[in-house]
Amino acid sequence: MIKKRVEIGETAATISCEERYLQPVIDGIISARKQITAYGRANPDFFLSLEPMDPEPGAPAIIRRMCISSGRSGTGPMSCVAGAVAAAGVQSAIEMGSEHCVVDNGGDLAMILKSPVSVGILDSLESGFLPTVEVGPTGGAIIGICTSSGAYGHSISLGRADSTTVMARDPILADALATAACNACSEPSEIRNALRALQDFDEVIWAVAKIDGFIGTFGDMPRVKFTEKSRSGLTIHSAFRAEVPI
User: Fold this and answer.
1) Domain membership flag for residue 108
2) What pTM, to 2 d.p., does this model score?
């Protein structure tokens, strides 16, 4: 098993897989980016809309999935682009025979697991410790763990939660729902309703939200451990100059 960091355009990804599947993962990421870029150039509102959009007739499968997931969550289609690109990389590895692959696309993860892995949740830039959960084998299915923040990062957020993280049986939906939950959290009192909205989605396994020191959880939340941050454990694009204590 190897771990490789790559930057492709705006995508900063850390890939964990057997070495023979590394290039298929990269190829899957590149293909997904090309399809999304081409579609967005032909349909500029796709890149800009903060509201759900219907895909154009004949749109690529990745575009249709982004539109469906964002439509269900009530967000714009680009709310789930990181999860979609990560999922495309993992799917490409699966098609070549991989049973264990993790793509961390700037904190939005898609994975198929044959053995347990530890996943950190970046909930603060100030703390030197990282909340970490263990994720067990996925039974041959792709799952996603995606995080949205109104406090850090370069993505658009309409809320101000430190972080909202969603684990779901679909990485694209996990990304869209993490965005939606973060959008709904501007005050600690809003955590409950933001997480309660997730009960309408059977794909959601668990979720956690944090704002101003208040934390709420939903679903089958695993035990959280706190580990010391390490630079190798964070996937941050070189263009994003965040001061992270390590």
Assistant:
1) yes
2) 0.89
